[in-house]
Automatic annotation (TrEMBL):
Coiled coil, from the record: 61-89
CDD domains reported in the protein's UniProt record: PheRS_alpha_core (cd00496)
Binding positions for Mg(2+) per the UniProt entry: E254
Annotated gene: pheS
Subunit structure, interactors included: Tetramer of two alpha and two beta subunits.
Domain of life assignment: Bacteria
Pfam families: Phe_tRNA-synt_N (PF02912), tRNA-synt_2d (PF01409)
Cofactor detail note: Binds 2 magnesium ions per tetramer.
Principal cellular location given in the protein's record: cytoplasm
Top class in the EC scheme: ligase
Matches recorded under InterPro entries: aa-tRNA-synth_II, aa-tRNA-synth_II/BPL/LPL, Phe-tRNA-synth_IIc_asu, Phe-tRNA_ligase_II_N, Phe_tRNA_ligase_alpha1_bac, Phenylalanyl-tRNA_Synthase, tRNA-bd_arm
UniProt organism field: Eubacterium segne
Catalytic reaction annotation: tRNA(Phe) + L-phenylalanine + ATP = L-phenylalanyl-tRNA(Phe) + AMP + diphosphate + H(+)
Listed name of the protein: Phenylalanine--tRNA ligase alpha subunit
Amino acid sequence: MKERLEAIKQETIAKIKNAEDLNILNDIRVEILGKKGQLTEVLKGMKDVAPEDRPKVGQMVNDTRKAIEEKMEEVKAQLQEKAREAKLKAEVIDVTLPAKKNKIGHKHPNTLALEELQRIFVGMGYEVVEGPEVEYDYYNFEALNIPANHPAKDEQDTFYINKNIVLRTQTSSVQARVMEKTQPPIRIISPGRVFRSDQVDATHSPSFHQVEGLAIDKNINFADLKGTLQEFAKELFGPDTKTKFRPHHFPFTEPSAEMDVSCFKCGGKGCRFCKGEGWIEILGCGMVHPHVLEMCGIDPEKYQGFAFGVGLERIALLKYEIDDMRLLYENDDRFLNQF
């Protein structure tokens, strides 16, 4: 028994010394010390040993196991150190190389402009409301005081799906829907995509975005409209911005006006940006027509209101000094990465 144990020890230690990696070392451990290993087989044969010799044989087995395990731990540590050095050598990092940059997307100019408008009007107590882009002719036209024979309903200006359904030409349809379902006071803005049958050029597109606003309450007048839009212009273009209102006509407001802002590049003196006029047209507005209030179930004798609409792309073009609307939709990284 002693000779057998000594042979197992010497043979196993020799194998351990010659092990080239940790996997081979683990195979040796299983072969010798595992449940079906050679030392385990020796222990199973203890039943055939005389009772008085069992303590000696057991001690010899333990000494052999201890010698093998110590040598195995020694070689294991050496192999682990060798593997670590090889890994470090293979994974050398040149700290002088430039780091890899992650390309992270950012907000589109339209989104930046929309968030700025929403921040301003939400700060004034307005609620952001959205509506369907595919709209009934009634909400897009008739509820806004645009009768069946109005030029705006011409198929050359409007995309018709059928006689009663259109791609909305303005987000004012959202205002009509809100007035129909909600009693004043009402303060909303309605941003969204709209569609008109326009040719694509530097300032026109068949698909673009609008932000329309509506305020309905008792004793609202044109001074409230002017004050609201003046505050909006100052927040958007700077505290020195001036506003000018020019008479205009919209079917759903009376009186109606277009609002200009003083050129924020030259301060109103006249420059290339404002074409020498000192003023830039920015939006249309007016007091909500009494007939529109009546059609939406609101008493025009008791309530008044104002509405306004601004093209989101126009705001983006002015604020970021972009000279061609098409740049917003061409997905050119050279342009978009500037924002």
